[in-house]
Write a structure and sequence with these properties.
Glucose Permease (Domain IIA); 197 residues; mainly beta; two-stranded parallel ribbon; eight-stranded antiparallel sheet
């Protein structure tokens, strides 16, 4: 599928989020699976990019392993399944991985054989099982080791069906081999143009 045209805008503080899921109408005859942003549209702006270099925040490998969408000081911002898929993993902030990831869950999307790891959620993860695009699967939070305690969604992309052992990175090259830019993947699959920074 060819990339979607993207219109650039200046970064600004988004309006308060609606708790209603983002609805994208796709004709019944469409050969493409449904995709939606993982956060309400006013918040679908990156606050930190994939593999952003920062040796102060990430002293082990010097790079951010996912993408962040900021909450801009708002609370109760819903998080949505970005595509039809299956919640294949989830754990809480009091688990060993939760110390850094907070409440987190992994959505496997079989149509692209990729997984999306949602981190720092304010509530425990949803039950394992199938979900449809646009289904609420969490609430944005700051559990675990979130930068400066800010409310945000940290989203990581992994090739294949997610297992937590895949996140035991050994080097920057290992990160680059196992992961991908989750934001770029979602935007390429959306059926409508999206505003970006």
């Amino acid at each position: 599928m060819s990339p979607i045209a993207v219109k650039k805008i200046k970064k600004s503080t988004p309006p308060p989020a609606s708790s209603a899921p983002v609805v994208v109408v796709v004709p019944a005859s469409s050969p493409f699976p449904m995709w939606t942003p993982p956060v309400p549209l006013p918040y679908f702006i990156l606050s930190q990019t994939y593999l952003n270099e920062d040796w102060t925040l990430y002293p082990k490998f010097g790079h951010h392993t996912g993408v962040d969408y900021g909450g801009h000081g708002q609370t109760d911002i819903p998080l949505f399944s970005c595509a039809d898929g299956e919640i294949v993993y989830g754990n809480t902030a009091d688990s060993p991985w939760g110390a850094s990831l907070g409440n987190h869950c992994a959505l496997y999307v079989p149509s692209v054989d990729r997984s999306f790891l949602y981190c720092h959620m304010s509530a425990p993860p949803p039950a394992l099982g199938e979900v449809k695009a646009g289904t609420q699967i969490g609430i944005m939070g700051n559990t675990g080791k979130s930068a400066a305690g800010a409310i945000h969604l940290h989203l990581e992309g992994f090739f294949g069906r997610f297992v937590i052992a895949a996140r035991a990175f050994t080097s920057l090259a290992d990160i680059q081999t196992k992961t991908f830019d989750a934001d770029q993947c979602i935007r390429e699959h959306l059926s409508f143009g999206i505003l970006t920074v």
